[in-house]
Amino acid sequence: MGRVTERRKVIRIRDGAVSSRPDTLVAEEPLEIRLNGKPLAITMRTPGDDFALAAGFLVSEGVLGAASDLQNIVYCAGATAEGSNTYNVVDVRTAPGVVLPDITLERNVYTTSSCGLCGKASLDAVRTTARWPIADTPPLQVSPELLAGLPDRLRAAQRVFDRTGGLHAAALFSEDGELLDIREDVGRHNAVDKLVGRALQSGDLPLSRTVLLVSGRASFELAQKAVMAGIPVLAAVSAPSSLAVDLAAETGLTLVGFLRGSSMNVYAGEHRIALRATAPQG
């Protein structure tokens, strides 16, 4: 099975001095996800938590919503012409009676790359397939001070990043700031899928009392995954995209960007941020 990191020889140049040394790199390999024996999607990922990644991906697709929807997930033997197991192909089997949505090629493209359908179609697809409307979740509020402390806690928990410097991370926090889970991957969307998939497997969906923090930007795809998992607050250390903001406003998701130190921008769902009243400027 693939490893999380690999070693490669590099030529290192520092202040004009040249040396040769091994360097630790994050591993990247393709993962093909099959649904009931039929190919569905391929994603480039860091090996590890593959079953959770596949389960989380299918939550965002609207296929799975509870552990009882899942019969099993297995690596596919005979994935190569020689019949060997590459551990890069998984087959997800749904439980009897689970009704599968019509997953067309076009829908699969936009959910895996966020670059296919037009904005209106993408927004409509998420709104109509979300199992747990975020606007209907019980009231939850987090303070700016609590949010401000989360990036440092995420960074401190990134074990593989310390060795490679080349991984995205996603972390789930409780409304009180407790770190519930963290996953790393070469793809930011895979890191979120691994979190959501683990929650599905443990029977914790919907994640209606949590905050999702991502180490990069907040794309439409990440906002979509938060909505589909019932997560009410998505925070990112970098910028959101315009379509992510549109989706947040459409679904009631609280979206925070540029979370750096005590500074942040709230793009939607500000009712969940416990803001102190300030005196009007004269």
UniProtKB/TrEMBL annotation:
Keyword Lipid metabolism: no
GO biological process, one term: Mo-molybdopterin cofactor biosynthetic process
Cellular component per GO, a single term: cytoplasm
Cellular compartment(s): Cytoplasm
Molecular function (Gene Ontology), one example: sulfur carrier activity
Keywords linked to the UniProt accession: Cytoplasm, Molybdenum cofactor biosynthesis, Transferase
Location of the active site: 115
InterPro entries (alphabetical): Cytidine_deaminase-like (IPR016193), FdhD (IPR003786)
Family: Belongs to the FdhD family.
Described function: Required for formate dehydrogenase (FDH) activity. Acts as a sulfur carrier protein that transfers sulfur from IscS to the molybdenum cofactor prior to its insertion into FDH.
HAMAP family reported in the protein's UniProt record: FdhD
Protein name (record): Sulfur carrier protein FdhD
Species per Swiss-Prot/TrEMBL record: Streptomyces colonosanans
